[in-house]
C-alpha cells in the first residue's frame, strides 16, 4: 500500500494500513486476483473491528478524480445498494471501502427456491428496480448490471437484494477500455454496439435481460454465435420461443417487452416498471411453480461460471501488476468477490 492516501470523505491524509487490516482466507467466496489491475479483499477496521470490503483499482491514466463527484457517491444510501463508505485515492490507485455483504448471489438463491413462481420472482425483481431507480435519480448509470452484481444482504430467508459496483464505472469511465464495459455482451444495449452512448436507458436494457433470465432460465440469445448475437441485439429479436415461456403470464412477458426496446427513449423507465401491475403485485400469478425455468437457470448459472473462469484466465495471462505490495502475477493472497 502507498504510505498515505487521501480519504475524500474527511479530506485527511492517513495511511490505509493504519485504519484497515486486509483479511486473507475468507472461505468459499475466496478467489485469486488476476492481471486485470484490480481485486477485492475483506478488511477489518482496526478501531471498531467491523468488517468491510476493499476494492483496489489500478488507474489506466494518472491523476485524481473530482472530489465533488466522489462526494455524491459517498452520500448514496439505499437498502438495495451496497454502500460505498470511504475512498482512498492516489495518482495511480483507487481504494474503495464498501459495506461487507454476507449473502450469496441472487441467482444462486433462486436455484434453491422451492416456490419458484412469478410472484416470488417479481418480489426480487422489484428490489433490483428500486435500487436502480435510486441511482438514476442521482444521475448515476450503473453500466454493468448483470447477475454477478446482484447479491443478498445475508443468508437469511428474508434477505434483501443489493446491487454491487454501483459506483465503479462512474469512477473509472474515463480510464476503462470500451471492451471492459462490453465484456458481457448479452447484457449490452444495441446503442452501445453502434454509437457507444451511455445513459440510464442502457441500464434498462440490462434490466430486461435479467428479468428474461429470471422468468425462463435463459437469455434471449442462447445458443447463438457471436455474430448472430450482435445481429439479434441490434435487431431487437425477442421471440419468447423457449418452452418455459408457456407457463409465464402475459403480464410478465409485457415487462420484458417494455424494457427490451431497441429505441432507448421508448423503454420503460424505472418508475414505470415499478407501477406495472406485474411488478407491483396487483396482477402477478402465485402459481404455477416454474420448474422448467428453474432447471434452465441451473444451466445458465453454470455457463456464466465457465465464462467467468475463461475470462479470468485471459486476464491473468497479461503481465503481472504490482498493487500496493500485492503482486498479482506471483504470490496472490486469497480475496473475496463482492
Structure characteristics:
Phosphorylase Kinase, domain 1; Transferase(Phosphotransferase), domain 1; 2 domains; seven-stranded antiparallel beta sheet; 38% helix; globular; Kinase-like_dom_sf
Secondary structure: elements and pairs:
Elements: E1 5-7, E2 12-14, H1 16-19, E3 20-22, E4 30-31, E5 38-45, E6 51-58, H2 67-75, E7 84-89, E8 93-99, H3 106-112, H4 118-137, E9 150-152, E10 161-163, H5 168-172, H6 178-181, H7 190-194, H8 200-216, H9 226-235, H10 250-259, H11 270-275, H12 277-280, H13 291-316, E11 322-323, E12 326-327, E13 335-336
Antiparallel strand pairs: 1-2, 1-7, 3-5, 4-13, 5-6, 6-8, 7-8, 9-10, 11-12
Helix pairs in contact: 3-13, 4-8, 8-10, 8-13
Q: Tally the helices: what do you get?
A: 13
- The low-confidence runs, each spanning 5 or more residues with pLDDT under 50, are 1-12, 25-36, 173-182, 318-338
**CATH homolog superfamily of the largest domain:** Transferase(Phosphotransferase) domain 1
Whole-number mean pLDDT: 80
Could you give the order of strands across the largest sheet?
2-1-7-8-6-5-3
- What sequence of helices (H) and strands (E) makes up the elements? EEHEEEEHEEHHEEHHHHHHHHHEEE
In CATH, the topology of the largest domain is named Transferase(Phosphotransferase), domain 1
Number of strands: 13
General shape? globular
Radius of gyration: 20 Å
